[in-house]
Amino acid sequence: MSINHLILRNLKKNIKNYYLYVFALIFSVALYFAFVTLQYDPTMNEAKGSIKGAAALKAASILLIAIVAVFLLYANKLFMKRRSKEIGLFQLIGMTKNGIFRLMSVENLILYYGSLLIGIFIGFSCSKLIMMLLFKITDVETNATLQFSVEALIQTFIVFTLIYLVIMLMNYVFIKRQTILSLFRVLSSAEGKVKKISVLEVLFGIIGIVLIISGYYVSSKLFDGDFSNMNELFMAMIFILGSVIIGTYLFYKGSVTFITNVIRKKKGGYLNINEVLSLSSIMFRMKSNALLLTIITTVSALAIGLLSLSYISYYSTEKTAEQNVPTHFSLTNDKDAKEFEKALDAKKIAYNEKRMKVIQVDIDIRKIMDSNFKELKSDPSAMTFPVISDKSLSDVDLSKDETLFSGLDGMLSKVMSFKDSGTIVLKGKKERIPQKYIGLKDKFILPYTFTFGGLPVAVVDDTVFQQLKNDLDPEIQFDQSYYVGIDIKDDANLEKANNIFEKLHLDDHPGNLSRLLMSSSQKQAMGLIMFIVGFLGLTFLITSGCILYFKQMDESEDEKPNYTILRKLGFTQIDLLKGIQAKQLFNFGIPLAVGLLHSYFAVKSGWFIFGTELWTPMIAVMVLYTVLYSIFGILSVLYYKKVIKDAL
Question: What is the pTM of this model?
Fold first, then answer.
């Protein structure tokens, strides 16, 4: 047999066995090339000023390289292990180690660069679609064009060539270090199989579960006022991160083995064929894969968490803009308001107007505070709040001794919560006016420029308001003390009104705001982040899914003799396949379930910082991730089915 024939035969065999690796490589190259193409595309330069696209995409491409490089190096390590007997046979027939290395280098060269070229072609074909998706998500109005970038081609070739050289170096070191005997023993020595469960493993398992639960508990208390300064918050976050990661490792190292062993002992050691193929295999192999599973689970949780938070921000843009700008347009001086209203009248756009005087007053709120966050920058005995008269609101009528708060930012509410009732003191320059605090309403009345970014508005009786107005402290007053809110009656005219607002350059004046402009700006920023996190998360999902698939493929080959014996004893393919399905449910389900739990508690602890909606965005991300992740479990079952079929 000639060397060329040997190369072609091995190449055909490798493609047949490792088609998922080729797919993941093609996908990674395509995604990277598309990202780099976006950096060099002239159309992106037009949008650069509005979404800062180039810098963000460049950072994403670097992270993408790291994910792909780790995946390729790990996958190559598994493949070298699978081919160890083949390398040993080559040495037995007289081939030198250098000759074997050259043979495998040529095979890898054809497989690798063939996948690279296909990936570049697919990346180029999809680059316009990806660009259109980016523009759609970020609300950038520009035409996407399909242009081939030579710079992107060169950069992609350089990056993946460097990865290829590292792979070849790993292969060279592996071949040089192994003897013929050790190569035949690689398969049997690679997986550490546990014969007996020690007390230490049981202890590790219990500690792992306790650490994870304690991390979850502390995360749920993170912003409940239990940690009263930034140092305590920082230490709590470090504890959560450390306890969850270490707990996850110990969970895989001991907890899974311990739990499955308890199940086995309850059955008195009498297991049916399904339990033998699932529980026993998991008990003996989960420990040796603890580090890999910990990394996959942690990064999966990170990917799900970041994507959930970015989608929460994107999903909440309109609601957040509505809270920050309660009316369609907010203006802070009469001249701008009259100019805008005149332009609306000229275009026959109907609108509603509300006007109110706003003053800033120090209020002693110590007796109504329900939290004690020491890092709060203001003194609770004299915290400055915006104050308006109840005459400015049609649905509020207060007595002379009552004060109502309205509209508290969600993030601020976690460090500054109020009781349902109590007493406060309004402080003018000279006078002190005691008031009965009657509660906090959810309604947002003033734009964020009046509320220091999230404080509630204090509503008082008009008599008290006039009294405070005549006794103002000039040192705490804003330049703008007059608020004009304009709501367009017909939403169909909102875009026209917004164009008028921009043409008059009213948004250039401090304090003048458009809800539509704010929502669009937030969508551009968060849409880009969601786009990048989504594609990086998808890349990691595919690469980690492939790694788990390769591990299962590796285990199936090791267990093939066992299937042969079971088949000879009379068990059918269907009997064995039921046990394999249960096994894969554990192998893929446990890392997925733990990753989802980690991400849930991480998102739940601080989601309010990113937006106003939690469940819909988070559930959508988790369901999508679960569906895509499950595909690799199904593929591994199909591969096992093939192995079982060939076992007899």
Answer: 0.84
